[in-house]
Amino acid sequence: SISSSPVSGNYERGFNLGTITLSNTYTANDAGSSSSSTYYQNGSPLGSNTTSITNLTAAVSFYVNLSYAQGACKNNNLGSPDCTGRINAGSVNSSSISFTPFDKRYWGFVSSTSPSNGDVLSLTQDNNGATASLTLSNVTPSGSQYLAYFTKGSVSSVTVNGIPATGAFTFTTFSVTNAQGYASTYTYVYSNNPQTSTLSSVIFN
Known about the structure:
The chain is an all-beta fold and 205 residues long. It has one helix spanning 117-121; strands spanning 2-5, 9-12, 18-24, 34-41, 44-45, 50-53, 60-68, 74-75, 81-82, 90-93, 97-102, 105-110, 124-126, 134-139, 146-151, 158-160, 163-164, 169-177, 183-191, 199-204. Strand 8 (74-75) and strand 9 form a beta hairpin.
């Protein structure tokens, strides 16, 4: 098996992972001891067990190929050494681990339809940036504000309090620089008019 420090998994796009140190665990069973190992990044061999990712923008995968010596002869059922079926020297690949980027999405109320980047990052958010559909319940503006939604997905309709309200919203794009300093284009949907009271249900599709 292969493992890493920092641990593999999902990280926000643009995240600086720094130096990644890879390690492996080998259980010989009836084979011989390990003799050498080669780590692979996206299918290409590394010269060592370390690499660096300072700006994670696409998935990066790793596995290790480990060479092992010939296994020992074992005693047969008469208690005599018998090399029949002895495991020859060879190599084996581990499963893969990956570092995968994700985008956040943002929603809430803004005071202007042209909010600052800081305003966007201060909105409610989750790690499902590629997902277009969003259902909100009992959302309340602070005074008179516009309802806004930023997603990497494609939104085509809005329903408010159970009534189709697509025409009451503007659909455009907006460049968002995330907390990692990575800028990308988002679908930006906002209400044409500021809201002043609680909306019991809003569905973006």
